[in-house]
Amino acid sequence: DGLVLVGDNAGKTLNSSNADNTIAVGRDALTALTSGSGNVAVGAYALDLIKDGGYNTAVGWNALTASPEAGSHNTAIGYNALAAHNVDGDGRNTAIGSSAGEDITSGTKNIAIGKNALATSTTALSVVAIGDSAMGATATGNTHTGTVAIGDSALANLSSGAGNIAIGYQA
Questions:
Q1: Which of 12, 41, 14, 3 has the alpha carbon at shortest distance from 25?
Q2: What is the percent of the chain with per-residue pLDDT over 70, rounded to a whole number?
Q3: Could you tell me where the beta strands, DSSP code E, fall in the chain?
Q4: If we measure between CA atoms, which residue out of 25, 21, 35 comes closest to residue 5?
Q5: 17 φ, ψ to 5°?
Q6: Per-residue pLDDT tens digits for 94-132
């Protein structure tokens, strides 16, 4: 019930009895979904590979696209936001901005706001990155659990260390 499918191949494999209140708008949006309620995908290839996750929101071309596992409770807004995300279970990641959280594959409970914020980290856990390239191009791995970076390029060169706090331009 409550399905809205608009676009070439949108919701192509959907089983309507297992995907209540799901919306797919755009070419190949939610193409692989077979079950999972409350998903919203707007944009070409948004959430296109997820098979059985629920309560995800993906807005933008290629947003939350590489998630064949049962990822749930993720929000990706912007081109390539959370594009590599592949968490089997409750991801609880929020990424807003072009390529925000782009390479997060198994990281959970993260907030990335701004172009390239937390873009190359693959396994970040409970990280907050706000600002253009905050914890962007060189912050990798989950060695920075609980870190907060606010500002343009804040902690962009962080290679290790948990629980860091940096606020300001290039802090």
A1: 41
A2: 94
A3: 4-6, 23-25, 40-42, 57-59, 71-72, 75-77, 89-90, 94-96, 111-113, 128-130, 148-150, 165-167
A4: 25
A5: -75, -15
A6: 999 999 999 888 889 999 999 999 988 888 899 999 999
Backbone φ and ψ for 16, nearest 5 degrees, come out as -60, -20
What lies within 8 Å, CB to CB, of 87 at 6+ separation is: 67, 69, 71, 74, 93, 105, 106, 107, 108
pTM attached to this predicted model: 0.92
Largest interatomic CA distance in the chain: 50
Report strand pairing: 4-6 vs 23-25. parallel
Written as six digits, the tokens of 82 are 């959370």
Whole-angstrom distance, CA of residue 133 vs CA of residue 15: 39
CB 79 within 8 A of CB 63: yes
Residues in the chain: 171
Tell me the pLDDT tens digit for each residue of 3-55: 899 999 999 988 767 788 999 999 999 999 888 899 999 999 999 998 888 99
